Amino acid sequence: MSDLQAQDRGDSLFDGTGSRLLAAAAVAQVSNDTLERLRLPSSVLKVSIPVRMDDGSLRTFPGYRVRYDATLGPTKGGIRFHPRVNVDEVQSLAFWMTFKCATLDLPFGGAKGGVTVDTKELSLHELERLSRGYIDAIADFIGPDVDVPAPDMYTNSMVMGWMLDQFCTIRRSFMPGVVTGKPIPLGGSHGRETATADGAFHVLSTLLPKLAEQGRAKPKEDRPTVAIQGFGNAGAQLAELLAEDGYQVVAAADSSRALYDPDGLDVARLRAQKGETGELPAEAGEEIDPDELVALDVDVLVPAALEDMITADNADSVKASVVLEVANGPTAADADETLDERGVTVIPDILANAGGVTVSYFEWAQNKAGIRWEADDVRERLRTRMIAESENISNLAGDRDVTLRTAAYAQGLERISAAVDATGSAEHYQRER
Ligand code: NAD
From the CA atom positions of the chain, what is the Rg in Å? Predict the structure, then answer.
């Protein structure tokens, strides 16, 4: 049993990711040194953050920052504020980021951070004090050349602005490259707000015609049909891009309801109304059971809400020929095999939603160089990179006869392995002279 297999025996650290990595390791050219290096996170920081509340009382919140692997560059990963945050989850997400960055050929390792807190219970001032307090606690651990945080669940560009300001105050130096996802006036990049949807759009536009050519997707001639689960930031933006490009978005769901119209929903109207009321408008289509959306006979199913929405329990019902994973981890590992057997092609999250981290890289690169790129420039660089990596992964999947997910992990693994081995591997040192 390899060390990675040992790690995958059910401990929560690697959960589904571990088995997927093992499948990739089996078809990738990867040294044992690399697998050994990836067995454990490079550092795990646990802090407590004292916050003065508005009523004068003091509360301490637990916080974490995990740097998983820095072989390819400074570590990169978001900061999550959520009541369920714990060290195991942060560690798993840091591991995941290591692969996402390597798969997209970004010069970053992987990290993640979080605070166990329900932000809905905090006032805006308390949220600011918590954000600044978190940076006070981890300031020695981060930096533009060391570890670069970004927003994640329940953190946003304003939180990044506070964090940047706090870090600069501590260091007495303006260092905008310490966080990404900042407001544009503080050194944020154009295109960051729409990057995930833009990236997913380019990935689908590149891969759907290839899958059709290979007979693995049969999109309706002119207007492929799409169902979107999760009409939030990423899902709604993508729905609009697809509708504008001639796709027919026949179903959309948020946490309030699921809507269906076989002739295509009016996506722009849905977005406008959801913006006003916070919910999908009931009268905009036929209301269906949210579980039915996953089973609709569409060309492309887009899970863009939460993790584990497609599991061993409902994978059998999926009729779409392509699943585009815009959410992180929407397909449970135990559903992969069923989908594959049924001929459903999954475009994995690690590629499909990587537009966000790619524009974060652009932001960091602009900050380091002290320049600003125009919005069109950012858009074109994102397009070029997403198309190139989609093609690489598609070719790798064909050459090695594996799924796109396994190919994406294999690509990341080989890039990390090449860097690990460049400093000398066991094979190098043990070679007879
Ligand atoms: P969001 O909070 O803006 O949107 C989530 C949407 O999902 C909301 O409309 C919510 O109502 C809906 N939803 C919740 N539960 C649902 C359910 N059971 N069925 C149907 N819909 C449900 O979040 P977001 O930023 O759009 O992120 C969505 C997913 O995409 C997450 O997994 C996130 O990690 C991933 N992601 C987002 C980005 C980004 O830049 N926004 C980047 C990478 C990955």
Answer: 22
Using DSSP's 3-state secondary structure scheme, residue 46 falls into strand
Using most ligand atoms within 8 A of CB, pick from 254, 331, 358, 362 the residue to mutate for ligand 1: 254
Residue 324, classed as helix, strand or coil, is strand
What is the DSSP pairing of strand 109-116 with strand 75-82?
Answer: parallel
Mean pLDDT for the chain?
93
**Residue 327: φ, ψ to 5°:** -70, 160
pLDDT digits (tens, 9 = 90+) for 130-152: 999 999 999 999 999 999 999 99
Beta bridge partners of 67: 43, 111
From 103, 306, 311, 347, mutation site for ligand 1 pocket: most ligand atoms within 8 A of C-beta? 306
Active site residue 112: yes
**360 touches 382 (CB < 8 A):** no
pTM of the model: 0.93
CA atoms of 227 and 231, how far apart (whole Å) = 10
Cα dihedral angle (391, 394, 396, 402), rounded to 10 degrees?
170
Q: CA–CA distance from 308 to each of 228, 314, 390 (Å)? A: 15, 11, 24
Closest residue by Cα to residue 304 from 289, 313, 293, 312: 293
Q: From 9, 12, 31, select the one nearest 426 (Cα to Cα).
A: 31
Going by alpha carbons, the residue nearest to atom 41 of ligand 1 is 234
Residue 246 burial class via C-beta count within 10 angstroms: exposed 0-12, middle 13-18, buried 19 and up: exposed
Find out whether 230 and 258 touch, Cβ atoms under 8 Å.
Answer: no
Distance, CA of 137 to CA of 122 (rounded, Å) = 19
Distance, CA 257 to ligand 1 centroid (Å)? 14
Q: Looking at the DSSP assignment, which residues form a beta bridge with residue 361?
A: none
| Closest of 143, 146, 92 to residue 114, by C-alpha | 92
Structure tokens at 96: 């995941």
314 C-alpha to ligand 1 centroid (Å): 20
With beta carbons less than 8 A apart as the criterion, state whether 46 and 62 touch: yes
What is the whole-number distance in angstroms between the Cα of residue 116 and the centre of ligand 1? 20
Residue 229 phi/psi, 5-degree rounding, is -100, 110
Nearest-angstrom CA–CA distance, 18 and 209: 31
* Bridge partners of residue 300, in order along the sequence: 226, 322
- Over residues 46-69, the pLDDT tens digits come to 999 999 999 999 999 999 999 999
